[in-house]
Amino acid sequence: MYSVTKTYDHNLGLAATFRQPKALSHCCNPHGYPLSFKLTFTADTLDRDNWVLDFGGLKDIKQWLVENFDHRMVLAEHDPFLEDFQALYAKCGFTPILVLPFVGCEGFAKFVYDKVDAWLAGKHFLECDLRGLRLASVEVREHGANSAIYYGER
User: What digits encode the pLDDT tens for the residues 38-91?
Assistant: First the structure.
């Protein structure tokens, strides 16, 4: 089994604002972090270039991360003030709010995993089948002390 990682670090400038509406701490307030994302890919065998995956082929993923997490407000679909935030953002002409089933590093890691896994299965279907190429995990880091990892179910 071979494993490689691709990291989109804090220097990329992906800064998201979110809140945990059910939190009993200050995390119930809107707050933000510069996020980093670490994707781990595995394969049973290497490709013709002796790689697990050509990192140059991940430009679409980087662009998608920028579109979804660069200076974005991200709220949970169960946030009791979701409609209020959306109305305010629409009134001010801000980028629409990204709505996820749940927010925080755990929610972001699952959201990114699902997207990248589907992209990989679509773009590299034969390699996934023949070489066992797969996305093993996504780690999302707020800063040096806090991160969460989502491992795929396959």
Answer: 999 999 999 999 999 999 999 999 999 999 999 999 999 999 999 999 999 999
Domain-by-domain residue ranges, the chain? 2-73+101-151
- pTM beyond cutoff 0.85: yes
Q: Smallest Cα–Cα separation from 40: which of 118, 108, 131, 134?
A: 134
Which superfamily does CATH assign the domain made up of 2-73+101-151 to?
Answer: 6-pyruvoyl tetrahydropterin synthase/QueD (3.30.479.10)
CA distance 35 to 21: 20
